[in-house]
Amino acid sequence: MIFHPFRAIYITLLLIFIGSFSFAQSNYFKMSYGFGGGMNKSYTDVYQGDYGKIVYGVFDYHITPFVTMGLEGQYGRIKGGIAVKDPSGRWFVNKYTSLTANLKLMLGELVNYNQSGLLYNMRGLYLGIGLGIINNNLSNIARYPPKTSVSNNQRFGGEDKSINVLVPINLGFNYYIKDSFGYMRYVINVNAQSNFTFGEGLDGYNESRLTSNNTYPDMYNSITVGFRYMFGSVRSYHKTL
Predict the structure, then answer these.
(1) Residue 166 contacts residue 131 (beta carbons within 8 Å)
(2) Buried (b) or exposed (e) across 215-229, using 16+ Cβ within 10 A?
(3) Phi and psi for 212 in degrees, rounded to 5?
(4) pLDDT tens, position by position, for the chain (241 residues)?
(5) Which residues contact 191 (CB under 8 A, 6 or more apart)?
(6) C-alpha distance from residue 46 to each of 84, 160, 187, 218 (Å)
(7) Which helix (H) or strand (E) holds 220?
C-alpha cells in the first residue's frame, strides 16, 4: 500500500472544514404564535390622554430566527379627555380592535453574537414596522359641550364607529428559552409600540379647529409583556443558536 501524504492532509483538512461548518449551523422552527397584554396611553385631540388596557395575539413566520413577518390582533380600551380640564369638555372611551401585518428585524441577524456574551444575550433586541387597520367603537363619549357652555346645543362632530389605517412601530426584546433537545422553543417578549392612525376615529372627534393638537395624527402607545411558542418544520441557520 502506497501512502500519499498530500492526499491524507487534503482529506483531513476537508473533514475538519465540513465538521466545523456543520457545528456552526443550527436548526430553528419556522413559525410561532403567542399572546400577551399590557397598558396603553392615548395621544389625540382631546386635552389629556388616559391609560387603558390591551390584550393581543400574534402569529409569525420566521424568515430566519431573527427576521419575522406576521400578523398581530389587538383588543383593548383607549381612553382620553378630562371634561373639567378640556377647553371644550370632551372625553372618550374607545373599545377598539385592530389587525396589522408586521416585519421585525433583530440584532442577532446583524452581528456575530457568538463572539460576545453580551451580544449573545442581546440578540433578541429588535425593531419593527407594520401596516393594518383599527376598528374604532366609541362606547362612551361626550357629544355635547357642558351645560355651562354658551354653545351647549352644538354637537361635536365625529362618528361613534369608524375604521382607520394603522401604522405600528415596535421596539422590543425576545428572551429565548431552549427545550430539552436544544431548540429555541419558548420566547418571553417585552414590547413597546407606537401606533399612528390616519383619520379622526380614534377619539371620535373630527372638528379640526377645536384645538391646535389636531395638526398631528391621533396615536396611542403601549407597553406589553407576552409569551411565544415556536413550532412547525425546521430550517438550518448559519450561526449557532
Answers:
(1) yes
(2) eebbbbebebebebe
(3) -70, -20
(4) 555 555 655 555 555 444 444 444 589 999 999 999 999 999 988 878 899 999 999 999 999 999 999 999 999 999 998 766 666 778 899 999 999 999 999 999 999 999 899 999 999 999 999 999 999 999 998 888 776 555 556 778 888 999 999 999 999 999 999 999 889 999 999 999 999 999 889 999 886 544 445 567 899 999 999 999 999 999 999 898 8
(5) 36, 170, 171, 172, 173, 222, 223, 224, 225, 226
(6) 12, 15, 38, 10
(7) strand 219-237
Gap between the Cα atoms of 148 and 90, Å rounded = 13
Local structure of 230: helix, strand or coil: strand
Residue 59 to residue 63: CA distance in whole angstroms: 13
The domains of the chain, with CATH numbers, are 29-236 (2.40.160.20)
Give 29-98 as a DSSP string.
Answer: EEEEEEEEEEEEEEESSSS-B-EEEEEEEEEEEEEETTEEEEEEEEEEEEEE--TTTSTT---EEEEEEE
Distance CA 50, CA 160 (A): 19
Cβ pair 73, 109 in contact under 8 A: no
Instruction: In whole angstroms, give the CA distance from residue 226 to residue 70.
Output: 15
